[in-house]
Amino acid sequence: MLFSKSLLPVGASMLMLFSQAYTKQVESETYDPTDYPIFQLSADSDQAFFLEIPLSLAEAEGSNTGELLRIATQIVPGSEESVYPAFYPFAEKINALAESINATVDPVGARENYFHASTYYRSSVYYLVANQSDPRLVSVWQQAITAFNKAIALLHPAPGESFTAHQTNSSIGAYDIPGYFYKGSASNTTQLPTLIVMTGYDGSQQDEFHLACAEVLRRGINCVTLEGPGQPTPIRFQKIGFIPDYWTALTPVVDLITNRTDVDTSKIVLLGDSFGGTLAPIAASREPRLSGVIMLDGLVNLQQQIGLSLGKLEDLFKSGNAKEFNAEMEDVLINNQSQPIGDRYIFQQGLYTFNTTSPFEWFTQLGDIKVTPEVVEGVGDRPVFIARGQDDNLTGVQAVYARDMFINNRTNGVNLTTYQEFLTDLGAGEHTSIGAETQIFTAFSAWLSKIWGDYLFTDEQSY
Ligand SMILES: *[C@@H]1O[C@H](CO)[C@@H](O)[C@H](O)[C@H]1NC(C)=O
Ligand SMILES: *[C@@H]1O[C@H](CO)[C@@H](O)[C@H](O)[C@H]1NC(C)=O
Ligand SMILES: *[C@@H]1O[C@H](CO)[C@@H](O)[C@H](O)[C@H]1NC(C)=O
Ligand SMILES: *[C@@H]1O[C@H](CO)[C@@H](O)[C@H](O)[C@H]1NC(C)=O
Ligand SMILES: *[C@@H]1O[C@H](CO)[C@@H](O)[C@H](O)[C@H]1NC(C)=O
Ligand SMILES: *[C@@H]1O[C@H](CO)[C@@H](O)[C@H](O)[C@H]1NC(C)=O
Ligand SMILES: *[C@@H]1O[C@H](CO)[C@@H](O)[C@H](O)[C@H]1NC(C)=O
Ligand SMILES: *[C@@H]1O[C@H](CO)[C@@H](O)[C@H](O)[C@H]1NC(C)=O
Ligand SMILES: *[C@@H]1O[C@H](CO)[C@@H](O)[C@H](O)[C@H]1NC(C)=O
Ligand SMILES: *[C@@H]1O[C@H](CO)[C@@H](O)[C@H](O)[C@H]1NC(C)=O
């Protein structure tokens, strides 16, 4: 769901990033929490944002605040080396605690501890992408999935179901799309609306259970998550990077969903989170079985957005000199320990998720994944909700671009497009409004109700 925060340090203009004037925030400024849109758990703004994710999951069984705040004490601002040792042993202990519980006696305790352990396992490997052959990227992820699957088996009124959808791509061959289906009610015959959640550049579908699915399951509708090429599980276990034709990852999932007896096939909406805000409309443009799309947040072109911060390096990229671009990117930035973590991480994660070691190849391929007028035309007459966090300087004005395109690049765009900015003063101004899920899902639910013909949500205190 997320990517680097520190590309845009407070007070630094984006174009200053690679100039002499740019200084590392951690060293040059005294950390003052009152300077930030949201309270930071680290003096390093990238690590602070990284920690906001597991912290936010606490609202729906994904962590406990005390545990997370304790872990945060072990993380040295600016040091990625301190992250794995802070999270991994903690995850091991919580997982052991979960294992020690007899789930017949205390199913809630078992479920919650497994969920927490899974979150801490996932967080522990966040920065390890710097070395693509680090075996922990895969082995610890497997531990995270194992713990998560034990947790969802204990959900009620119905256990979460994992599934694998299949697709074939002419250049990458057959591949799998892992997903989860969470039922909005115990019944197998009541046909309910379904929200499909597509994550982004680095977030996992397991995060999305706590961030997005929890909100809609409480309202009594089904939730589905999936990970396509480039996303955490496919890149780790199948080595397939992001592709432009992202609908090919969605369609087999919709095939599975529409076959079920507990889905109202006229009410399926796709939500794209973070870079999913780009992937979701692309996928929806060729998937007519969706009745709407939510972009959280609006993001038309990530390459363009990152390009703003590359300064002279963007000119080098445009000149087409791959060799020199790669050398500069590696020396100045990606492998330069003097750069803030976030500025290295966003590129390291990019290389990893596009299955390449060439920055030039990564940035070229990233440019092929964007919302175009053709995509908008493909979405056509389906309603679109575009969100923006007021202080989301990661995606800048991309949500405004998205709004203008969905209004102007299709027939009846004004009536079909809803745009809402979520406010910093209300704690919802961060990228994807993370940590303010109640506010965003209140807005989404009002919109869903309207597009589904005044649909009435229920109140299922399912967990
Ligand atoms: C984000 O950008 C807004 C202007 O759009 C600015 O007022 C705000 O200070 C920026 N926030 C951060 C954290 O840089
Ligand atoms: C778990 O608790 C149930 C109910 O008390 C009991 O029947 C079962 O044997 C216990 N399982 C283990 C592994 O102790
Ligand atoms: C990357 O990880 C592999 C496997 O652990 C290790 O052999 C290699 O030395 C690491 N590379 C770097 C640059 O640290
Ligand atoms: C197949 O994958 C390649 C990337 O390897 C991508 O360029 C292409 O668009 C994909 N085609 C389909 C039909 O998915
Ligand atoms: C729904 O189907 C599942 C899987 O086939 C089954 O385990 C469950 O008991 C069914 N639920 C109801 C309420 O019939
Ligand atoms: C991903 O990269 C690895 C290592 O270069 C390669 O073996 C593998 O075939 C690549 N995957 C795809 C789908 O191209
Ligand atoms: C959907 O159901 C039909 C009929 O039972 C079956 O032939 C088809 O394989 C199913 N498709 C999927 C994707 O499960
Ligand atoms: C590494 O980053 C530092 C801090 O921005 C910068 O001063 C230095 O020139 C960079 N190293 C290289 C080789 O560009
Ligand atoms: C699409 O919308 C954008 C933003 O309003 C506008 O600048 C552009 O001309 C439109 N393009 C097409 C092909 O309609
Ligand atoms: C757009 O919505 C308004 C208000 O509901 C309605 O009056 C108008 O006819 C709609 N325009 C189109 C082109 O559907």
Architecture blueprint of SSEs:
Blueprint: H1 25-28, H2 45-56, H3 65-72, H4 83-100, H5 107-124, H6 136-152, E1 161-169, E2 173-182, E3 192-198, H7 205-217, E4 222-226, H8 232-238, H9 247-258, E5 263-273, H10 276-284, E6 292-296, H11 302-307, H12 312-319, H13 322-334, H14 341-353, H15 359-367, H16 373-379, E7 384-389, H17 398-408, H18 413-416, E8 417-422, H19 437-451
Parallel strand pairs: 3-4, 3-5, 5-6, 6-7, 7-8
Antiparallel strand pairs: 1-2, 2-4
Helix pairs in contact: 4-5, 5-6, 7-19, 9-10
The structure holds 2-acetamido-2-deoxy-beta-D-glucopyranose (NAG) (10 copies).
Please outline the major beta sheet.
8 strands, mixed
Bound molecules: 2-acetamido-2-deoxy-beta-D-glucopyranose
The CATH homologous superfamily of the largest domain is called Alpha/Beta hydrolase fold, catalytic domain
Total DSSP helices:
19
Element pattern in H and E = HHHHHHEEEHEHHEHEHHHHHHEHHEH
Shape: globular
Multimer state: single chain
Give the low-pLDDT segments: 1-28
Protein name: Alpha/Beta hydrolase protein
Signal peptide: 1-23
Keywords: Hydrolase, Signal
InterPro entries: AB_hydrolase_fold, FrsA_esterase
